[in-house]
Every structure is written in C-alpha cells, then in structure tokens.
Design goal:
This protein is 38% helix and 17% strand. It is an alpha/beta fold and 435 residues long. A hairpin with a 2-residue loop joins strand 3 and strand 4. The two termini are 20 Å apart.
C-alpha cells in the first residue's frame, strides 16, 4: 500500500459522513495553514453537473499549448488519487502527496473534517508551493458550500450544463441545483455559462446580477457549433474557424466553446494557434474514450469497437446516447451496453436514452464500491427503461457473453458506462490507466 493510501484511509475517520457540505471546517484549516488559498496562481473555477472535466481538459490543453504552466484540481479520480492533482503538467508524485497530506493532518490536529475538505487543503498547499501560471479548479460537489469555494477572487468562473444529480445534497429541482452551482460566482469576476435549460439559466443569471458578475452566456454572447467537420466559434471579438475537437461527441463542441469563451473573456491573450493545438491534442480519459488495446480489449471478438464513459446521470445519458447515435449514423454496427451504477444514481433516467439504440444491456457490479447497485436490480431498471437486459458478474463476463451473440459475429460496438468508479476499474484492469 502506498504511504498516501494509508493516510487517506486514516483521514476518512475524521468525520462520520463522507459528504457534509460546509465551508466552516476548511476555512479554519486554511487559516491554521497560513492561507495557501490566498497564494495560488490565477484561478479559473469550474462548476456544473456535466462537462466540468472535459471543459477543464480543453482549458489545460489550450493553455499548455500557449506555453503556460498549469495546475489542475479535479475529482473523483479513476485509478489513483494522484490523478486529482496536476502540478504544472504532471500528476503529483507519491512522496509530495504523502508529505502534503501529513502536513494538513498534523495542522488539523484531529478536528472533524471530511476527506475531501482536508485533501483539498493539501492540494492548495501544493499549488501554493509550486509556481504556475494558472490553476484550473474543479468543484467537487455543488459549488456554494464546496471546499474549493474558499477561493474568493478567481480570475473567472464557469458553470457547465446543470441537470439533476446528487439530489440528496443539492436539491431535487433544476432551480435548486443551479442555485448551488451559482454559489461560485464572485463579484466583478467574469462568469462563463455553457448551454443551459431555461430554468437553470434564469437562476444563474439572477445570481450573477446580484453579485455584479459580468456574464458571457452560450448562444447569447458566444456560440460554438460544428460545420463541415470543423468547430466554428463566434463572439463579439470575431469568428474562429477551428479544427473539430479530438474528444468524441457533439457535446464536446459546446465544452470546447465554453473553454474558448473563458480564455477570451478573461483576457489571457491565448493565440488562435494554441486553441487549435489544444483542440486536437486534448485528452480526458473515460469520457467516450475508445479502448483499442489492453487485457479487456483482447477478450472481445475481432471487429469490436469498445468505448468507455463514466457519465452516470440522465443528462450524461442524453449526450452519450447522442454520440453513439452519431457513430451509428456514420457506420452501422449493433450496440451493446455494459453498465454498473451506484445506488445514488437514477438508472431509468440514464438508460431510457438508449432505448431503440442498444441491442442489449449487460449489468455488472461496481467493483470495490459498497454503494453499487446489484446487477439484477440494475437489469430491472434497464428493462423498465425499454432495454433488453441481463445481469452478469463482471465486465469480463459481459464481454464474453457479447462475443457469443450471433449479431456480434461481425463489426459491433460495446459501450461500458454508468459510473466513474466502474470506468476506473476498467482502465486499471485493461492496463491503460490515465497518464
């Protein structure tokens, strides 16, 4: 066991609940640590239900293409906790992570605090110690009371598409969830808003008005759309004719546009050439990632395309199903789902978008998660959503079952989906972890 893993397990015991949204505990810890939150590089703070990670990935790729040193904070991780913290381009190494966790643990001195809060404090300590030109800071959950919201003066804030998720903590309406996401808006700091439902946008605009934040709203102040195999972006400063995003799915045009709008509204002077390079080199594992080699891929029959996506809520189901439909339109192949999901998610809402698109769903456990749905229960939810479904014991077993289907004797598609935790175990078992 890594030293950092042992520390993380110990930190879990500092609070009886894994999630307890509040800024009080981390505010106290930041003060005790000498306020590393006030000594960070310029911050772009990103909240939203879907698209946070992809938008952040586009931002990083574009900034790095412009020669900038970029820190990144994201969650959750897929395979190793170290993926959450990038220091000027590279995942934090084991010794530095362990040392930072120990420093935060020692200063916290056993006081109640969630693991996310204290690991965020450790991340801020690392970001403050290492020089960089920019910190891309992704919200963990919500926004208003998320531990990352101790940052009071970001360079800019972004709200990606808002949909229903984490109802237990954020509320069970779009309006309530949008209010929580809008909690990252800061007075006088530019707010970039990705495409939203009318209900979410109304809440976000009102919070921006109350806080005096200048807004740059999709389809009002900027647009991004595909045209002739290219990405067209336009705002009041002009039109850009750009390469298509490397990330798969029509939603990635909006995510890329959101990133471009943030860079331009923040006045960073990023050249068009860097934006172009970022669009074509960006990487974001487990978001419509095609697996082309590895231990799991070798189990499939020749002619199989295997795709992996960690999306897990109804909003993600829409965009993933659209991407699969686009692939089907370009090259017809039967689609099989392999899905595992946590008990906190809405499986029927996720699966219904694949009705009529997927030939069959194989439901699997989420390895290592106590909150994973039983395959039988998940199969019943998939059936209720209009799919033919069968529970199996593992992803490996599902791939073997698909290989016996006569329809899969030729070219076919397999989509592994429903949980970032499942996606992480797939990448690990396949021997293709994030880098």
């Amino acid at each position: 066991m890594d030293r950092s893993t042992a520390i993380l397990e110990r930190l879990l015991k500092l609070h009886p609940r894994e999630i307890d949204l509040s800024l009080e505990r981390i505010d106290l810890l930041m003060a005790a640590m000498g306020h590393p939150d006030r000594h960070l590089p310029p911050v772009i703070h990103v909240a939203g239900t879907n698209g946070k990670g992809s938008t952040t990935a586009f931002l990083r790729a574009m900034l790095e293409a412009a020669g900038k040193r970029v820190h990144v904070y994201t969650s959750p991780h897929l395979v190793r906790f170290h993926e959450r913290i990038r220091l000027a381009g590279s995942f934090v190494d084991e010794d530095e992570l362990a040392d930072a966790l120990v420093r935060a643990e020692k200063i916290n001195d056993g006081q109640p605090i969630t693991q996310f809060e204290i690991t965020t404090a450790a991340a801020f300590d690392l970001f403050a110690r290492h020089p960089a030109d920019m910190l891309l800071l992704e919200v963990g959950l919500g926004g208003r009371l998320d531990a990352t919201n101790v940052v009071k003066e970001p360079l800019a804030t972004i709200i990606t598409p808002v949909s229903i998720d984490h109802e237990k903590f954020l509320g069970d309406t779009i309006e309530a969830i949008a209010f929580e996401k809008a909690g990252i808006i800061k007075r006088g700091r530019p707010l970039i808003v990705a495409p939203q439902s009318a209900a979410a946008l109304a809440v976000i605009e009102e919070q921006a008005r109350l806080k005096g934040a200048p807004t740059f709203i999709a389809n009002q102040d900027w647009v991004a759309y595909p045209e002739s195999g290219r990405l067209v972006y336009q705002d009041e400063d002009g039109l850009l004719d750009l390469p298509a995003p490397r990330l798969v799915g029509r939603h990635q045009y909006s995510n890329a546009g959101t990133a471009i709008a943030a860079l331009r509204s923040a006045g960073l002077g990023i050249p068009t050439s860097a934006i172009e390079t970022g669009l074509t080199t960006v990487e974001w594992p487990a978001r419509l990632q095609r697996l082309t080699s590895g231990a799991l891929v070798s189990l499939a029959r020749p002619g199989a395309e295997i795709w992996l996506d960690g999306g897990h809520n109804p909003g993600a189901g829409i965009v993933i199903a659209e991407a699969m439909a686009d692939l089907e339109e370009r090259a017809t192949r039967p689609l099989f789902l392999i899905s595992g999901m946590l008990t906190t998610k809405d499986p029927v809402g996720f699966f219904r978008h694949f009705a009529g698109l997927a030939r069959k769903a194989f439901t699997v456990p989420v390895p290592g998660s106590l909150a994973g749905r039983e395959p039988q229960e998940l199969a019943e939810a998939a059936t209720a959503a209009g799919l033919i479904a069968e529970p199996v014991d593992s992803v490996e077993a599902a791939i073997r079952r698909i290989s016996t289907d006569p329809v899969a004797s030729g070219a076919h598609r397999i989509l592994i989906c429903g949980s970032l935790y499942l996606a992480g175990t797939v990448l690990s078992a396949n021997g293709t972890p994030p880098r």
